[in-house]
Model the fold of this input.
Amino acid sequence: MPRRPGLSARLKLTLSYAGFLAVAGALFLAVVWGFLLRYVPDNSRGLLGISPNRYLLVHTFAPAAAVAMVFLLVFGLVGGWILAGRMLAPLTRITEAARTAGRGSLSHRIRMKGRRDEFRELSDAFDSMLDQLEAHVAEQQRFAANASHELRTPLAISRTLLDVARRDPTCDRGELVERLHAVNTRAIDLTEALLLLSRGERGHVTRGSVDLSLLAEEAAETLLPLAEQRRITLDVTGGATRTSGSEELLLRMVTNLVQNAVVHNLPRGGTVTVHTEECDGTSVLRVENTGVALPADLVPTLTEPFRRGTERVRADDHAGVGLGLALVHSVVRAHDGTLDLVPRPAGGLLVTVRLPGTP
Done:
């Protein structure tokens, strides 16, 4: 908001320094008068008849005291201006860095040298903030580019199908409708996933009491036909595990984890185990599945949006868009929880979600 111009911090400090010196000088003169001059006799003969009297001393001392006070005031103003400038120099660098960041350049860093003091701590905190902000902006730009690419693909396919149908009146209309329906469904699923991911990133969560064990059973019941089709054993174990959060988002989180475990599994005879429990005031959800061995450097990247490892790409109807674990990670962060992904030595993945429990 606009504000009226005022005195600069440097000028305020300068006036403070000069005022302090002036007050100190006045106190010193008062001490001299109170403890020295008042003991000088005020008569025509002076002290012991040889020294000047109080009247002469006062008239001699007063001009010198006035000159000294003026000198202290000028010295305080000049010295205070120089000292204030030196003291506020780091703050000027921080201000320039903030203005540079405000113009959109997030790569500039202060990197203030010297011993640690208040200004050094402020500059280090500002540099750390710029690091996080630059990484966040780069992540958002990368996410927007990937999302645009993913959304463009089904639209381009739909346009191609319609162009082919327009040029070939004899094409099978039923097949065209089915293919357009499949492409449109994929685009809708992607859009809903992007909206959920955006909602989780903003932290807009309507909280209520949620039982993760019930959500695990519901997700398993929904995905049971898919597991049976692939001949995968799906088990849900554990007891009531309550947490506070959005039932819709948490159900989507559990469903994504179970579906990911079913889809990225052995071709036949695999297993998926979903376990819920409460441990030391924390609600824990574990989803473990069999599958191929995953490289250790691949696992940490699976929560990035649109990230698909070559070992996890599916060519069937359940091929994802690379948002499954990214959505899970977003929902977990929105609920102040943690997400751990550990590759199993025998193959597959162990996913552990820890959320704050409720009494």
About this structure: Residues 309-319 have pLDDT under 50 and may be disordered. The two ends are 45 Å apart (CA to CA). Residues 339 and 353 are 5 Å apart (CA to CA). The beta strands are 208-211, 233-238, 242-245, 271-279, 282-289, 338-343, 349-356.
